[in-house]
Amino acid sequence: MNKHLIAFVALGFLMASGCKPDQPAEPALEALTNSKEDLNIAFNNSGDLFLQVLGDKNNLGADKTLRGVNIYDRVDTILAKEKGLAGADEKGMKAFIQDLNSSDYVSSYYFINDQNFVTDIHIMVNLISDSTAKDLFIKLSNFFDQKYGKSFHGLDKYETWNALTVDSFPFALGMKFIKGVYPGSDSVKMAYSQVLINLEETDY
User: Fold this and answer.
1) For the segment 74-104, what is each residue's pLDDT rounded down to a tens digit?
2) From CA 104, how far away is CA 106, in angstroms rounded?
3) How many CB atoms lie within 10 A of CB 64?
4) In 115-142, which positions are buried (b, 16+ CB within 10 angstroms) versus exposed (e)?
5) Which of 54, 168, 182, 193 could be joined to 133 by an S-S link, Cβ 3.0–4.6 Å?
6) What is the CA radius of gyration of the chain?
């Protein structure tokens, strides 16, 4: 089974899994004013992997939430910003996969309502190196803390942030680190460490 097929099978497995992640230590945050300029500086100086995961086709996206997209953006925004190759295209969901190198990859899932607006985004970063995944988790946590304020523990041990999109729709952003997952099939011998990022509409 190739890794691209594994990526899409793995989403259901992970959402049903009760894996408890190791929690990497958080380095001290640098003081920021949360100005647009500071956020863009933090975004663009967080490293190549960070930009590959969060950035859009032009490695931008600090003004958006994930890969240049926000909750309640229209479907055409996804097509304009998403740099992965299209995968499963089902009613109510669009999936993409982006190779980071010969083994690591990112899977992106966008859930769409009947009015063609994005309602949920799930990003799954699959990395062979445990230390690389931990480092990415810390950099993402720092950036989201700077942008939205300090996180709290949500359900299933996700680090969670409450925030508003540019159009003031409330959402919850959750992130989780999982070590050593064999995605999708018993025949897959390679274990990935994963960073899961979920963006969902919320009532609070």
Assistant:
1) 999 999 999 999 987 788 999 999 999 988 9
2) 7
3) 18
4) eeebbbbbbbbbbeebebbbbbbebbbb
5) 193
6) 16
**What burial class does residue 50 get, using C-beta atoms within 10 Å of its C-beta: 0-12 exposed, 13-18 middle, 19+ buried?**
buried
- C-beta separation of 193 from 130 below 8 A: yes
Q: How far apart are CA 29 and CA 82, in angstroms?
A: 29
- Say if CB 62 and CB 44 are below 8 A apart: yes
Sign of CA dihedral 58, 62, 67, 70: negative
Give the 3-state secondary structure of residue 8: helix
For tokens 């729709």, the residue is 169
104-163 pLDDT per residue, tens:
999 999 999 999 999 999 999 999 999 999 999 999 999 998 888 888 877 677 888 876
Instruction: Report the interhelical angle of 130-148 vs 36-44 (nearest 10°).
Output: 180
What sign does the dihedral 118-21-19-95 (CA atoms) show? positive
**148 touches 171 (CB < 8 A):** no
Phi first, then psi, for residue 167 (nearest 5°) are: -100, 10
pTM, two decimal places: 0.79
Binned at pLDDT 50, 70 and 90, residue 56 comes out as very high
> Token digits for 57?
């086709």
pLDDT greater than 70 at residue 5: no
